[in-house]
Amino acid sequence: MAKSFTILDFQTRFPSDSICLDHLMRVRFGEAMDCPKCAKHGRFHRVKKRPLYECAWCGFQVSPMAGTPFERTHTPLAKWFYAMYLFTTSRHGVPAKELQRQLGVTYKTAWRMGHEIRKYMANVDGDPMLGGHVEADETYIGGRPRKRGKKGEYPWRDKKTAVFGMVQRGGDVMTRVVRRATRKSLIPHIKANVAKGSTISTDEYHPYWSLPAEGYRHLMVKHREHEYVNGEAHTNTLDGFWSMLKRAIRGTHVHVSRKHMSKYLGEFEYRYNMRKQPEQMFNRLLASF
Ligand SMILES: [Zn+2]
Q1: N or C, where is the chain less crowded by C-beta within 10 Å?
Q2: 160 falls in which pLDDT band (50, 70, 90)?
Q3: This prediction's pTM
């Protein structure tokens, strides 16, 4: 069982901006490094009262915040660390309101911090090739119900975002925002991310019927006939991910526009894919900058 990183552990480990800065320096550049200027190897020492470290030999200065989102804000580093801690430990995501309250920053700052962190979570996650037995499915997420739809109009669909997902059983999940759930938009994602020869379970939706022709073993369940499991064939793993994601977005974010959807998806993918080593999430996120 993975050891959890409690809030008390966090506060003991990162009590101040200065300790956070030291940690960032170590995570990004290691305990000691070759100086980019004089090429000598050694420890860089902290410059007093400035967020910089310098070479003991030539005085060359390095900023551990350079190139990170921390550099561009006035928000103290310890608050950024705490925000990242919340993102990597919460199961359902962190709404901006919650960040605002916990960090004592403005709503606008909290919202921006959340988006920066999500962006990096999506980056760290990467996209390994899926194989073995993969489940694939499309769904619609977000959107607000219209008060009164025009006659014959589906009140949700045009406001919701179409999302395609694939999950390797026992492995990683991968999602993509798509314009529409058609064969042309779905199949290329499968071809690019699932190894040929893998087994793919889907529902009976037409676009997937071409999978055998693309070199996959295709298993199907007929959701419309209320068939959810047929031997090995089912999409229960992915269904579980969708319902967790939808519940979280409904519960914490109220509305996620199409424009921002992929960042939210990246956040949830990362958390799902790191589920077996949650204690590593925080450091991997820091190292990603
Ligand atoms: Zn030097």
Answers
A1: N
A2: confident
A3: 0.79
Cα–ligand 1 centroid distance for 39 (angstroms): 6
Q: b or e along 172-195 (b: 16 or more beta carbons within 10 Å of the residue's beta carbon)? A: bbbbbbbeebeeebbbebbeebbe
How far, in Å, from the CA of 42 to the mean position of ligand 1?
A: 9
Candidate from 58-62, 162-166, 250-254 with smallest mean pLDDT: 250-254
Q: How far is the CA of 46 from the centre of ligand 1 (A)?
A: 14
Shared-domain flag, residues 89 and 20: yes
Q: Is residue 67 part of a domain?
A: yes
Proportion of the chain above pLDDT 90, given as a percent: 59
Q: What is the pLDDT of residue 148?
A: 54
CA–centroid distance, 57 to ligand 1, in Å, is 5
Its domain, for residue 71, covers 7-125+280-287
Do both 50 and 163 map to the same domain?
no
Distance from the alpha carbon of residue 41 to the mean position of ligand 1, in angstroms: 8
CA of 33 to the centre of ligand 1 (A): 10
The total number of structural domains that make up the chain = 2
What distance in Å separates the CA atoms of residue 8 and residue 168, rounded to the nearest whole number?
35
Q: Is residue 261 part of a domain?
A: no
- What CATH number should be reported for the domain holding residue 205? 3.30.420.10
